[in-house]
Every structure is written in structure tokens, then in C-alpha cells.
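Retro notes, structure queue

What went well: the backlog is down to a handful. What didn't: a couple of records were mislabeled last round, so from now on we paste the full input next to the output in the thread. Example, using XK-related protein from Polioptila caerulea:
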Amino acid sequence: MRGAVPRLSLTLLAAESGARLCAIIHYLVRGQLGWFGLTIACLVPGYAAQLLSILWFRADGHTPGCWLLALHLLQLGLWKRYWDVLRAAAETGGCAGEVLAQLGDVCVLRLLEALLQTLPHLLLQTYVVVAVDPAGFIPGVSAGLSLLSLAWALVSYSHFTCLLKPGHLSPPAAVILCLLLWRTGMLGTRVLALVLFARLYSFWVFAVAGVHWLLMSFWLGAQQTDIVAQPCRWRLFNCLLGAVYIFCYINVRPGPSRTRVAVFYAVSAWNVLYSTWM
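Corresponding output:
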């Protein structure tokens, strides 16, 4: 495993955080307290990933000190994890199993943070640019970096799952670039479609998203996804993943996924036709 993936992940995470901070200051300076408050609120769900990171540190035998707790309180816990991966990769040449385990932890945590924090921020800033301030440079830059960071979180997660397969090496840079373009295009068009629908039909967007969420949740339940053993947690997992499927497809089951991807895009196409009919 080379250090390019965690290094790029850390760079995009820093760029996204910097742009989000600029957006917060932008709304505060202009007196747009409503958008300021909503942008701050988008930070709150990210603490779920920070809390999980602390719990995983404890599970690995590392007692969190005050400085580590402070980093996670400032939402810098994943920054430290990326730094640990880069340092361990430099010491071992990037091939040790411990490095791969650390990379897996931070990829999963970053994907969780991106879905809980970056995605709501992306929707909010895109709506501001489309419906409120089309000439807003800072919200536009923040939305663009959030989109790129979210797409890369999905790509880095796919990259890690590829490394876990026996006999599989790290995908070439061209493959990773194609995956990034695919994820960026899919997320960008989906987010833009939802924002435009919300701009035209207001709260009807929740009806469309709700129908899509229900269809995806029932479909996941029909597949008997066994990634979570307990029935209650299994149902909750399917419901949460169904909400994610409003925006993108994430493969959580082993084996070929062509059929599942085809069903996902078929439902998405039906959802677009339903939205147009409404």
C-alpha cells in the first residue's frame, strides 16, 4: 500500500474543512444568521465518526489521553489517524498488515463522516448557490470541495476493499481516476437534481426522497443482508443504507454486484420519471 491514497485523503479533508470554515465566516460577516446556523448544524453529525474513532482507539488498547480527546472534540481525530497511517507506511514501506488495518479504520470512519457531515453540507451549499445567491463564490467553492471530498471518500473505501481481496493489488491510478469521475458525476447530478426539485416544488422533495428511501430499504431487506447479525440492528442498518442509496450506491455484500447496480439505477431512473410527472 502506497501513501498516495491517505495523503490525498488528508489533503482533500483539509481543503474541505478550510472551505467550510470560510463559508461559516462568510455567512457571519454578511449577517446571514440562518445559513450560518444551518452550516454550523451540519457539523454536529460528524461527531458520530469522532466518537466511533475514540471507541476504536480504546478497543485497540490505546487509552485516549486529554490531547487525543481534544483532537476529536475539534473534529481532528481523523487527521491524526491519517497521519498515523502515513507515518507507519513510511516506517514499514507500506506493506505491513498493521498499516492496512489502520487504513481500513480511517477509510470507514471517513466514509461515515462524509455521509453524515459532508453530504448535508453539500446539499445546503448547493441550495444556497442555486436558489439564494447564484453569484456566491465561497458557498460554490465549499460545495465543490465537499462534492470532491465525498466522492473521494467513496473511492478510498472501494480502494481499501479491493486491497482486502486475496491476490488483489492496488488498482492503477487510471482506474482510481475513473472511479473518482464516476462517483463525482453520480453524486453531483443527484444532488443538483434534488436541489432543483426543492427549488421548484419545495417540500415535495421529501416525498420523492421518501419513496426512493422506502424502495431501497425494502429491497435491501429482501436481499437478506447479513452484515449485521442481530435482527433489530440488521433492520436499522438497511434503513440507514437505504437513505444513503438516495444519493449513491455502496456495495456492502461480497460477490458480483452487476445485478444490484442495475436494480439501483433502474429504481433511480423510475424516481426521476416520477419526479418529472409530479
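Agreed that this is the format going forward. Reviewer comment attached to the example: The mean pLDDT is 84.
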